[in-house]
Amino acid sequence: MTTTEPARRRRVPPRWIAAAAVAVLVVLMAVDTEYRTVETAAAAAPKKFDPAAFGAQNYQAKVVPAIQQSAVDLPVLLKALAADKDAAGQKYGKRPGSSGPYTFAVKGTGKAGKARSGLLPVTVEGVPDDTRVSLQIGPAINGTALRDAAGYITFGQFTNQVEYADAATALNNELRAKLLNGLDAAALDGKEITFTGAFTLLTPQTVTITPVAIT
C-alpha cells in the first residue's frame, strides 16, 4: 500500500506580512486625518501680535483710566518712600513679579520750567528740594511705566519678552499721538500745570514721569 506525505502548510513570506501591516496603518492614518483648507489652517494658527492694535485698544480705553484712578499725590508718595520704601511700594506701587522696582501712578500740581532734552521740569510744592521732578514730553518716550502702572498687563499675556516690550512701546506711541504731539511745551514755561502719569522708581531724588494728562 502506497502512502503519501501530508500536504505541507504553505508559509506566508515575512515580507508579505510587513507589507500588509503597513497598508493597514496607512488606512487607519487616512481615516484619522483631518483635512484642512488653507482658510481653516490659517484661522487655527496662532495670531501674530500687533503692537499698534494693542496700543490703540488699550491706551485710551483702559490704561489712562487705570492710572487716573490709582494716582496718589506725588508729595504724599515721596514722603511715604522716605519713611519706608518697601511699605510705600506695597501700598501704592505695582511691579511685575516679586522683584524689580515699583512703578507708581501719581498726580500733582506745580510750576513748569523750561523744557530741555525731552523733559519738562516741574516744581511741586511739598516735594523735597533735592528731588528733581520732570515730565517726559518727547519726541522719545522711554520706559515701561504706562504698561506697568496700569496693573492689568502681565508677561503671561504675551508669547515672549519681545512682545511684552513691544506692548510698552505701543502705549508710549499712543501717548505721544494722543497727548504730546499737540503740546506746546514752550508756552508752559513759568505756568502752573496739573499732571497725572506714572514713573518707575530708580531713585527718590529723580522722578521722571510719563504723563497721561497735562492741563
UniProtKB/TrEMBL annotation:
Domain of life: Bacteria
Region forming the signal peptide: none
Pfam families according to UniProt: DUF2291
Classification via SUPFAM superfamilies: TM0957-like
Keywords: Lipoprotein, Membrane, Transmembrane, Transmembrane helix
InterPro entries to which the protein is assigned, alphabetical: TM0957-like_sf (IPR036215), UCP033535_lipo (IPR014582)
Residues spanning the membrane: 12-31
Full protein name: Putative lipoprotein
Annotated organism of origin: Nonomuraea jabiensis
